[in-house]
Amino acid sequence: MVEANGDENMNSHRKNKKPWGWRLNTGIGTMVIAVLLAVALASKHSPNFSLFLDHHKICRCSKDSGELSGIIEDSCCDYETVNRINVAVLNPILQQLVKTSFFRYFKVKLWCDCPFWLDDGMCMLRDCSVCECPDNEFPESFKKPPHGSISSNPLICQRGDPQDTVDRTLATKTFRGWIAVDNPWTNDDETDNDEMTYVNLQLNPERYTGYTGASARRIWDAIYLDSSPKYSSGESCQEEKVLYKLISGLHSSISIHIAADYLLDVKTNQWGENLQLMYDRVLRYPDRVKNLYFTYLFVLRALTKASDYLQQAEYDSGDHAEDLEAQSLMQQLLENPELQDACPLPFDEAKLWQGKNGPELKQQIQKQFRNISSLMDCVGCEKCRLWGKLQVFGLGAALNILFSVDDMHNQGQPLQLHRNEVIALVNLLNKLSESIRIVNEKASSVERLMNGIPIEPPKQNIKLWQELWKTVINFGYRSQM
């Protein structure tokens, strides 16, 4: 009876015990499901990550990529040279230059009534607005306002990450070596100090703010209307095309910066790249990319034309060490032999205003651009207004350098720039340089994404996949024992 009971128990155990292969397969199947779920979660937070890679397809796609090549229209440089010089020379210097004390503070009039319509723009994010920060956040030279023009009870900013902080204050001194002059191409009055404030551009990055909808569209519609006038003859001259391409290139750059620093998830405050938006607004339109390059070379030409003036200027912000660095970086930028050899004349402004109606056309286009600068007061988002004003002001400075001082007809008229014009010009060139760098870095990835071809995952996601797969293998070995 005992043996019989033992056999029955053993037989019962064998019936209940699953085969080893079944247990292993079930365990591995469970782990694979877990791995797939984990990778799916990783893919959610990294849109460019794909579990299944087809490197053959990626390589084949890269061979057919639609990269721009040849001479840039209406300029004297080619795309390949511009890309190479931008990465090797211009972008690294500009990135350092805009961080110095002299170039990171921009004086701007943020509170103005729209001269064209009643503004009704709304922003989704608090980062769209500007508040006055406590005086102890700035150097001594920026603490006290002149003539008591700021309230004695300033608002306290909400503290957060540097990229989320917006602050402004007034300076107590005028930087030495600069004169207060008005640019005939823009509508801002640089002598109206009572309504101007200084903004730290490094604490106010150009990025997505949530400013969209009818108000934003109305701004751009009005800008393009002024940059693309229709004359009775129905013809468009070279000068009109230049103005349109400058505005289009600036628009492309702004869109690229918005897409490159986008709020992907409001609940988690997750920021990152929105490649779909970058493609929809810029990269799918070759003309918009071409106009970006054109605007970049136009502003670069203005900077190089003013080389003597800028090298002799006094960069004084009160921080002696940083001012010396700003002077040195400016000299490196303007005297770089590689830049001079590769692209000595980025844009030839001498070809414009040559006809009999040249002076009249120049005045007309100058008036149109002044209207565009006035439209910046209609932008409903304060941070958007800040960057809109700075970049339009910088473009106005470029126009002033290239067209207001004519070497042939006004040899006795010296170039005169306001300090704020130079700050805007350098920061604009940096933004355009960054946009070109982003386009070159992301264009192939965006193209693959739009064609439904997986993009090679970031290294951290590859590591995650390897670790998870190792866990599956180890689990299989443990199940075998």
Rg calculated over all Cα atoms = 29 Å
- Report strand %: under 5%
**Major sheet size, sense and barrel closure:** 3 strands, antiparallel
* Total number of helices: 16
Order of helices and strands: HHHHHEEEHHEEHHHHHHHHH
Number of DSSP-assigned strands: 5
The rough form would be described as globular
> Roughly how much helix do the residues carry, as a percent range?
40-55%
Binding site for FAD: 207, 209, 220, 248, 251, 281
Family: Belongs to the EROs family.
Membrane topology: Peripheral membrane protein
Cofactor: FAD
Kindly describe this structure.
- There is one protein chain.
- Helices cover 54% and strands 4% of the residues.
- The protein is mainly alpha-helical and 481 residues long.
- 33% of the residues are buried.
- The chain starts with a helix and ends with a helix.
- The N terminus is likely disordered.
- The protein has a three-stranded antiparallel beta sheet with strand order 1-3-2.
- Strand 4 and strand 5 form a beta hairpin.
- Helix 4 packs across helix 15, helix 8 packs across helix 15 and helix 9 crosses helix 14.
- It folds into two domains: 74 residues, no CATH class; 380 residues, no CATH class.
Defining key terms:
481 residues, mainly alpha, 2 domains, three-stranded antiparallel beta sheet, two-stranded antiparallel sheet, 16 helices, 54% helix, 4% strand, disordered N terminus, disulfide bond, transport, electron transport, oxidoreductase, membrane
